[in-house]
């Protein structure tokens, strides 16, 4: 019986406390980071799908910037996901596509611009449908 009273009092003290225990705060922050990262990955996927659907010559930098911009706006987890996905994509494409170092550098510049909060429309080509 005393054990249950101690557990009840301990629970009340924890719930009544204005501050959460550090372990709980760390778990909440980690949960937010994971949620932001998953959302950022979805943003990057959506930008990729839009790029494929638009199939518009010269618009790839715009979609790179837009995907990174949307992901980074979610928070640190989204920015992390955008950086990891962008870097992996560029490493893979630089080996496979054969477009060269200059194209990879320009893509990375657009990625970084979007992650820093820059307007993706800077890279928007004339004539790209308003849908995108």
Automatic annotation (TrEMBL):
Alphabetically ordered keywords of this record: Acute phase, HDL, Signal
Signal peptide: 1-18
One Pfam family linked to the record: SAA
PROSITE patterns: SAA
Positions of region (Disordered): 92-132
Entry superkingdom: Eukaryota
GO terms under cellular component: high-density lipoprotein particle
TM regions (residue ranges): none
Presence of the UniProt keyword Signal in the record: yes
UniProt biased composition (Basic and acidic residues): 92-108
Keyword Signal: yes
Coiled-coil parts of chain: none
GO biological process, one term: acute-phase response
Family assignment from sequence similarity: Belongs to the SAA family.
PANTHER family the record matches: SERUM AMYLOID A, SERUM AMYLOID A PROTEIN
Function: Major acute phase reactant. Apolipoprotein of the HDL complex.
Protein name stated in the entry: Serum amyloid A protein
Organism: Eulacestoma nigropectus
Encoding gene, per UniProt annotation: Saa
């Amino acid at each position: 019986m005393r054990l249950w009273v101690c557990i009840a009092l301990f629970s009340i003290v924890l719930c009544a406390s204005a501050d959460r225990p550090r372990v709980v705060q760390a778990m909440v922050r980690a949960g937010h980071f994971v949620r932001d990262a998953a959302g950022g990955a979805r943003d990057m996927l959506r930008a990729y799908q839009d790029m494929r659907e638009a199939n518009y010559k010269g618009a790839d930098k715009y979609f790179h910037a837009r995907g990174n911009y949307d992901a980074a706006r979610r928070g640190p987890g989204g920015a992390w996901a955008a950086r990891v996905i962008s870097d992996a994509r560029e490493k893979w494409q630089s080996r496979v596509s054969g477009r060269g170092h200059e194209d990879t550098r320009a893509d990375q510049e657009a990625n970084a611009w979007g992650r820093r909060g820059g307007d993706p429309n800077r890279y928007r080509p004339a004539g790209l449908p308003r849908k995108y």
